[in-house]
Amino acid sequence: MSADTSAIYAAGGEPSAADAPPIGGKLKIRADKVVIGVSVLLLMLVAGYIVPAVTGFTELAQDLGNRLQPPSTAHPFGTDDLGRDVFVRALYAARLDLPLAIAGALLPAAIGTTIGLIAGYSGRIVDTVLMRIGDFVQAFPSYVLLVVVAYIVGPGIGSFLLAVGVISWVAYARLIRSQVLVIRELDYVHSARLAGLGRGRVMTRHVLPNALSQTLVFMASDATLSLLFLSGISFLGLGIAAPTPEWGGMINEGRLYLATAWWLTTFPGLMLVLAAGAFVLISDGLDDRNRA
């Protein structure tokens, strides 16, 4: 309580709305985390489409006469071993990496949410079977299993989405299940059952919407892991195939020139860090909103 408000009470009066302490400042800071994160991602995506058209360079255009040129006004991120503009390629890669990182979080979220909802609401037998399947999947080292799945299917977008879908749903399923186990015992859910609503409608209209808040926070955070995994398997040659630019693949291509052309790995790595940081900001901001 402020000194001015205390003085009003001491005088026997009631504080007015004008005397109340501002509450918007803290909430605005929390909201800004989400806004900043989304703005950074959108800026990277838009630049990935605009910059190649403005500069006149394409992501695959080669200029062997300008191989391994350091950063300059003509080529802000330098050129690679084939004379390709690293700046244009790094921005073009955002057009692939960012949507795939989001898809790599959405797909397991959809699978895990469905399984967790069924497991938490259906009872002991179904719950036990589904959770033991989840235990079996989690018994294997996640990244090793992801790499194995990507290797079996072959390089490409399909192998990445299949790998994250098969492996990453378990965390979502456990998170949703823990929420559903609590929500299904609340009074409004019992009232919906007594009103004669079907099981499916109770689950989707009354239970699921109230169990999703923490899942959305986790999904924003999981997009960071999805982005890093995509870059990791591309670095190993199991993700986006060359010559299509992808940050992990670009880092792999530049590792042979670390001593002479540092920019080949540095700038794609910085783009990766920037995008991952934006996803973390979004997750942190959503978490703050849930706690408010």
Description:
- The chain has 292 residues and is an all-alpha fold.
- It has a single domain (23-57, 76-291), classed as MetI-like fold (Orthogonal Bundle), CATH 1.10.3720.
- Helix content is 71%, strand content 0%.
- It has 12 helices and no strands.
- It has helices at residues 3-10, 24-55, 86-122, 124-138, 142-153, 157-167, 169-183, 187-194, 199-207, 213-235, 247-254, 263-291.
- Helix 2 (24-55) packs across helix 3 (86-122) and helix 4 (124-138) runs antiparallel to helix 7 (169-183).
- The chain is elongated, with a radius of gyration of 25 Å.
Taken from the alpha-carbon principal axes, the silhouette is: elongated
Q: Give the count of helical stretches.
A: 12
Major sheet size, sense and barrel closure: none
What's the pLDDT, averaged over the residues?
Answer: 84
- By secondary-structure content and strand pairing, the structural class works out as mainly alpha
User: Helical residue percent?
Assistant: over 70%
Q: Give the beta-strand count.
A: 0
CATH architecture: Orthogonal Bundle
CATH superfamily: MetI-like
Instruction: Please state roughly what percent of the residues sit in beta strands, choosing from under 5%, 5-15%, 15-25%, 25-35%, 35-45% or over 45%.
Output: under 5%
